[in-house]
Amino acid sequence: MTEFQFLLALFGATLLVSFSLIRYGLYRRELAKNLSGVQRKRTERSDEINEILGSENEQLRYYLDVVQNESQDSLRMRLVQAGYFSKSALAKFNLIRLSLSAVTFFVTQLGISFIAPSVSN
Q1: Helical H runs in the chain?
Q2: Helix locations, 37-88, DSSP H
Q3: 7, 43, 57, 89: which has the fewest C-beta neighbours closer than 10 Å?
C-alpha cells in the first residue's frame, strides 16, 4: 500500500466518521425536541392548499410544507430561506459539500507534493 493510498483511506475514514458524528448529533437533537414537546405537530392543510394553488405550483407547495413543518434551524429550512425551493436541493447541497471536500483533499496532496517533494515520496 503506497502512502497516497494510505492517505486516501485515512481521508475516507475521517469523512465517514465525521459525517456519522454529525448525523448522530442531529438525530439526538431532533429526538430531544420530540420528547420535550417543543416541536409542533405537523399540520396537514393539503385540501386548503390544493384549493388555493391547484396542482401546478410544486415549488410553492414545497415551500409551504417546509415552512409549516420544519424547525427554524433545519438545513432544509435554511435552503428554502436562501431561495432553493427544489425538493432535491438538500441532496445537491450535500453532494456539493462532499465534492468540495474531495477536491480539497486532492489539491492539498498536490500542493504537498510540490512544496515538499521529499515528504510525499
Answers
A1: 3-36, 46-53, 58-69, 75-81, 89-115, 117-120
A2: 46-53, 58-69, 75-81
A3: 43
pTM of the model: 0.52
Average pLDDT for 28-39: 69
SS3 of residue 110 by DSSP: helix
Cell numbers for 41: 405537530
Identify which of 38, 88, 91 has the alpha carbon closest to the alpha carbon of residue 59. Answer: 88
pLDDT at position 62 is 77
Which tens digit of pLDDT belongs to each residue from 59-96? Answer: 777 777 788 777 777 888 888 888 888 888 889 999 99
Q: What CA–CA distance (Å, rounded) separates 22 from 13? A: 14
Separation of alpha carbons 70 and 68, rounded Å: 6
Beta carbons of 13 and 21 less than 8 angstroms apart: no
Residues 108-119: tens digit of each pLDDT: 888 888 887 776
Alpha carbons 121 and 4: distance in angstroms, whole number: 9
Structure-block grid coordinates of residue 92: 445537491
